[in-house]
Amino acid sequence: MSHVPGLIQSIERSSAVLRLLAADRLRVGEVAEALDLPKSTAHSILRTLEHVGFVEQDPRTTRYRLGRGVLDLGSAGFDVNELRGRALNWADALAARSGQEVRIGVLRDRQVLVVHHVFRPDDSAQSMDTGRLLPAHATALGKTLLAYHPTVASAVAREGFDAYTRRTLTNRQDLARQLGETRARGWGLAVEEWRAGQAAIAAPLRTSGGLVVGAIGIAGPVETVCDTRRQARQALVEHVVGGARSISRDLA
């Protein structure tokens, strides 16, 4: 194979791009945003993958899609059961440290599918959410996932927003602002947006190459999760982010 200037040899980053394109057709900037890469780096990776036949670019839309070469290798998706299996112990530990309930979620049909749920470690009545679909725009899990999947976020915005409480996001500008804040700090927050009286904090779960494949978060009473300014308590943020990093290391 002849050498093409500017090719990137990072297998991890290339695999992350392929998994991203397995879910949607994206432009260079959207790939860069989803993987937290400079646009020039994302462009070089895509050029490399196009050179070996693993991606193709639509000349009309400039969007990239999986090429015939990678389709011959089989599915490029991530196994949700593997994600859940590797996260079980960390989720239990997070519930114990934070004193709050813990959920792990993935994107499904522009919503959040709860793949694991750990009850709050007390004697209060609770119901199991595993298998439930949650609104992406109104939950910390959802906003964390949408922050790293811009095409899905755009689709959610186009569909409009259901209001679950008086604090639920109801317009595109607010969603875009909060997703930007989530990406900048590395974790998401929702305060009484899905359920009145409840707040939640979530952080992304990454596989090799930095691809976000899920999110883990805690949820509990606003006065427990947030301070008097309705900001997330730093100690809880550190617990969530630390747990997410530990799971991500196991996934890499």
From TrEMBL:
SUPFAM superfamilies attached to this UniProt entry: GAF domain-like, Winged helix' DNA-binding domain
CDD domains: HTH_ARSR
UniProt cross-references to InterPro entries, sorted A to Z: ArsR-like_HTH, GAF-like_dom_sf, HTH_MetabolicPath_Reg, Tscrpt_reg_IclR_C, Tscrpt_reg_IclR_N, WH-like_DNA-bd_sf, WH_DNA-bd_sf
Tree of life domain: Bacteria
This protein's UniProt keywords: DNA-binding, Glycerol metabolism, Transcription, Transcription regulation
Domain IclR-ED residues, every copy: 69-252
Organism (species): Actinoplanes lutulentus
Pfam families assigned to the protein according to its UniProt record, in alphabetical order: HTH_IclR (PF09339), IclR_C (PF01614)
Record's signal peptide: none
Function: May be an activator protein for the gylABX operon.
GO molecular function, one term: DNA binding
GO biological process: glycerol metabolic process; negative regulation of DNA-templated transcription
Name this polypeptide is given: Glycerol operon regulatory protein
UniProt xrefs under PANTHER family: HELIX-TURN-HELIX TRANSCRIPTIONAL REGULATOR, ICLR FAMILY (PTHR30136), HTH-TYPE TRANSCRIPTIONAL REPRESSOR ALLR (PTHR30136:SF24)
Domain HTH iclR-type: 8-68
Alphabetical list of PROSITE patterns matching this protein: HTH_ICLR (PS51077), ICLR_ED (PS51078)
